[in-house]
Specification:
Chain lengths: 127, 490
């Protein structure tokens, strides 16, 4: 089970789970609640290369559509295609519903992401 | 028929028809000779088999469940659902207009060309532009046309670096989508706490790679962009162009002109601002106006006047982006818009905007007593509430909107713009009477009270409509697109 305390966060409300040279990325509970019931997910392709801040995919709820942004530079190594068939997983367990795994190409950028405490404050300001 | 609730396929009976075809003149010709085997269908298509009167009753019964502006108040923000005067229909139905053929010779269609020429002149005056094309068939089509013109302009100057379009986070969703379609990369910039473009974010986003900025003024929050002159200056200094999304033009007619604000390109939605049919009925019309330096790139043909005062379709425009629609736009719609503008006159159109703004401020002033108003400043033709503002009640904006249906009103736009949580976007338009506005305020106040006293009732609303609360999530996740009784499945 993934826990908030082990993750890093972006100001686009994504969580990042760094595992050695690779990392998983997903949507936080705050964002999944704000979006409401998610009904559609669009993912990129394996081997796609993205820079920090690039849009890599889309989530759609009955209320809104939102881009998913790459938290740091990376190359996609694996996709959670289950989300395409069952986007509700993101609402049910946001930390389990990862979107993709990528190879971290610039480790220094991790320093620019938020810690759990920073992210909690960030959400309080947005609410 | 009071509770008619059938699908066309439910009333289908094998062999029942509403027509009789003449004998088949081609019965000796084998279809297989002309069509490859792999493309021939083996089964008859599963179409409903019904007779004429049943089809008429089916659609009439369904149509009577519809809500329409002719049936009640329709304050759908951002959409300008204003009443469409019936004289528009009379004029569009005149045989000389209705029976025109787009291929008939110019000299036999002088009246139609004159009408389009004069419509262009009126739109030029309203927008402060040099010329206007009437070809685009709707707002987003106008955006695409305008962006193609901007691209052609930069390329004509051998300026090929400009690949980015800046769009504020309060923009209509069509803006970034249109920019993408034309091949631009979209750069989003934030709004400040007053709802205006954040000048620092704009400055940071500007560079010699920016082709232009798309802006709606008044903004999607219904607020007049206070920094518009500064915004225009900054974009022009960086070599970019300014695009005006005319979605909110109902607030500015005869008062303020995009051309004077500094915009280079503009589109108007005649189906919003100029009372042509809107929504599913359409079609729309999204004329695009440009300043002098962009005129050579307008779509062709343009309608021009010869020295002998006759009108012609001018195709001799070598730098034009070309045709963007078959023939000359939605002509019948343009006739309706022309009729409306002539009916109102210049002073009348100014009054339209004054009343639209007055009505919106009247509603805002009263509704802020019951709902949260995030930005409390004089609004233009519409305003945005942030729901009830009492999260402890667990009553959402969606519940409020659904309950409004029980009171006989079309709900406002909900959950847009995205920058306001629980958004309720209300646009009354100019045609509503004080009595209608007051009854809407009463309904909204009653719903706010119900939210305190009986939240469960709101959560299951609507209660008196032909169908109750629809499961939108299920509809999006598991759409049923075929009729089960006709052999379809999910």
């Amino acid at each position: 089970m993934r826990e908030m305390k082990d993750l890093l966060f972006t100001n686009e409300h994504e969580w990042v789970d760094v595992q050695g040279e690779e990392a998983y990325v997903g949507l936080t509970e705050f964002a999944s609640k704000a979006l409401g019931d998610i009904v559609f997910v669009e993912l990129p392709e394996v081997d796609d290369e993205f820079s920090m801040g690039d849009s890599f995919g889309v989530v759609e709820s009955v209320k809104a559509a939102a881009d998913m942004y790459m938290p740091i530079d990376g190359v996609v190594t694996e996709l959670n295609t289950e989300l395409e068939d069952e986007p509700a997983q993101i609402n049910q367990a946001p930390l389990e519903g990862w979107f993709l795994k990528f190879k971290v190409t610039n480790k220094e950028q991790l320093g620019e992401l938020m810690t759990p405490a920073d992210y909690e404050r960030f959400c309080e300001e947005e609410a | 028929m009071n509770n008619y609730n059938k699908l066309l396929c439910d009333i289908s009976k094998p062999g029942r028809t509403g027509y009789r075809l003449p004998p088949d003149e081609l019965e000796n010709i084998a279809v297989e000779d002309g069509i490859p085997a792999g493309m021939l269908r083996k089964d008859e298509p599963a179409l409903p088999e019904v007779n004429e009167v049943d089809v008429i009753r089916h659609f009439l019964n369904l149509s009577q469940k519809n809500f329409a502006i002719d049936k009640g108040f329709y304050p759908l923000g951002s959409c300008t659902m204003k009443y469409n005067p019936k004289i528009n229909e009379d004029m569009a139905a005149l045989p000389g207009f209705a029976n025109l053929h787009p291929y008939q010779p110019e000299h036999t269609a002088q009246g139609a060309l004159e009408l389009l020429f004069e419509l262009e002149e009126m739109l030029v005056e309203i927008t402060g532009m040099e010329r206007v094309t009437l070809q685009p068939a709707a707002g987003a089509h106008g955006e695409m046309t305008g962006l193609m013109i901007m691209k052609a302009y930069h390329e004509s100057r051998d300026d090929h670096k400009r690949t980015k379009i800046i769009v504020p986070d309060s923009a209509h969703g069509t803006n970034p989508a249109s920019a993408q379609v034309v091949g631009f990369d979209v750069v989003e910039i934030k709004s400040n706490k007053d709802g205006d473009v954040d000048l620092e974010s704009l400055k940071a986003a500007l560079s010699d790679e920016v082709a232009g900025l798309m802006l709606t003024n008044p903004s999607t929050l219904g607020l007049y962009e206070q920094n518009i002159v500064e915004v225009a200056k900054l974009v022009h200094e960086a070599g970019g162009l300014l695009y005006y999304d005319g979605a909110n033009a109902n607030a500015i007619l005869g008062i303020s002109r995009p051309g004077d604000m500094g915009f280079d390109v503009v589109h108007l939605n005649l189906h919003k601002t100029m009372t042509t049919p809107h929504g599913g009925g359409g079609p729309g019309s999204g004329p695009v106006g440009v300043k002098k330096h962009l005129v050579p790139f307008l779509p062709k043909p343009m309608i021009d006047k010869k020295e002998d005062n006759t009108y012609y379709l001018n195709y001799d425009l070598p730098q034009s982006i070309g045709r963007i629609r078959a023939f000359y736009g939605n002509f019948g719609i343009n006739v309706r818009a022309y009729t409306y503008m002539k009916t109102m006159g210049a002073e009348g159109l100014k009054k339209v905007s004054q009343m639209a703004v007055l009505n919106a401020n009247y509603l805002m002033h009263h509704l802020k007593n019951f709902y949260r108003l995030p930005i409390d400043r004089v609004c233009k033709h519409e305003f945005v509430l942030a729901g009830l503002g009492k999260s402890e009640l667990h009553v959402s904006t969606m519940d409020v909107a659904k309950r409004l249906l029980d009171y006989g009103f079309h709900p406002p736009t909900v959950y847009f713009p995205l920058i306001v949580p629980e958004a309720l976007m209300i646009e009354p338009t100019e045609t509503e009477s004080l009595e209608t506005l007051d009854s809407f305020i009463e309904a909204m106040a009653a719903i706010a009270k119900e939210a305190e006293e009986n939240p469960e009732m709101l959560k299951s609303a609507p209660h008196v409509t032909p169908v109750g609360r629809l499961d939108e999530v299920k509809a999006a996740r598991n759409p049923v697109l075929k009729c089960a009784s006709m052999g379809g499945e999910n």
